[in-house]
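User: For documentation purposes, I need each entry recorded in a consistent format: the amino acid sequence on its own, followed directly by the corresponding structure tokens. There are two entries in this batch. Please keep commentary to a minimum and don't merge the entries.

Assistant: Recorded as requested. Entry 1:
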Amino acid sequence: MPLRETLARVDADLAASRVPVARQRLRGLVSSFPFDLTLRRRLAEVYRLYGDAAEAGRWMYLEEDRNADETAAFEARYGSPGWRMKALAWRGPEAMAATSFAEGQLVAVRTACAEELGHPVDWDDPASYRDGLEEKCEAPSEPWTVGGVLAGVGCLVGALAFLAIWVNGVVALFD
């Protein structure tokens, strides 16, 4: 699906309060267009709707006007440079960054990771920094947020409703 069409769907999802769907669409776009800082910024805005400062900080990490509290939350959740490299979901050379600030952030994370591991690492080769993920710290855990709990409850209610409809259909077959 083209970028503009997907962004229009994101806008429609947000207008209809389908925040989880909008978030997933934006995550897909960031994966497809890792150099587009505006997509990362939009994803940070969605995470703010959830009240998730660490994820907002994650997606604003390459922006000069980022929020210091969100940045600190991101750095605390993703405590090692290897985890930050993985979390930033960057691909390619840092020179592809849209701004010199973003390029500097990417270089700093990669350099810190290489220094910690004692060998060169590369954004396009997750195996080069995988040791930093397995040995240095556990997978980051995310605290529960009101939005996350509500999304989970909504999924549970939807699943139960589907199950009830299905059971009624099966019972009707035998009547």
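Entry 2:
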Amino acid sequence: MALFERFGEFDSVEELNMTAEGLKEEGDLESLKVLAEENGLDAADAEDYADGIVTELANSLLAALGKLKVEVKELKPCEIMEDWISYIEVCCSEHEDMARAVRLKSKSLEGCIAAILKWSFAHQYPVPDKVKKAAGVNAGKVTLGIPGSAIAKKIIREYYLGK
């Protein structure tokens, strides 16, 4: 399924839950399941909501993590980018304002990773000759610009929250 193909992207958990409420009132469980899956939630979450086991389809954290899950499928990140995504997930679980910001239409995982990559290119440093030799690298100039976890988390917060 393409990114937010049927129901579109929601700007907030409230918008997502309002759509879910409408589908529940119509008794349209199949569409409710599609809505859940399109937003990175399980079909079982939709069933629990339809059955009244839970009072809303998602809370802020679930909505944010769901959006990230959908974006990850589309982006197919690997290695260090997966670590950055884990940082985003932790920030969402620790701060509701972060979870709400991740859900915004104006913000995306792609944009966040681009912000980190931009920082990386602007902050490259030369790799010492001893390290190049130990690695068996014969290139004349080797630079590296991967941020540590503290800097990556700062960039993530700045991207999503503007601070």
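Summary note for entry 2:
Residues 60-75 form the longest helix (16 residues).
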